[in-house]
Amino acid sequence: MATISFHISPRVPAYSPGSVGRPTAASAEKGKTAYVQHGCWACHGFQAQGGVTGPKLAPEPMAVEAFTAFVRGSNGAMPPYQEAILSNDDLADIHAYLQTIPKPADYKSVPLLNQ
Fold this sequence. Notes:
Blueprint: E1 13-14, E2 24-25, H1 28-37, H2 40-44, H3 64-73, H4 88-100
Antiparallel strand pairs: 1-2
Helix pairs in contact: 1-4
């Protein structure tokens, strides 16, 4: 059975599979915990800035539907994470966390880089 998740913003309730008919709000705080617990930081960095083995995830993460589809069906260097390992609620929370990561400061605002 196919399922669809909707996520509008970290503060707006999202519908997640497994809770059909019951809205659940994605939590950036829970997402940060899940991001660390599931080891996402090891490849993508603590601020999701990307690294040698994992691409940048934030700021401006991809849409939650694309994010979920990629995590579930990755066939590249990242192993796919099935729902038994990483729940849809955890994925929505991680996505909410990624949305809270601000853009880095413009290099022009760093005095040492403007000398």
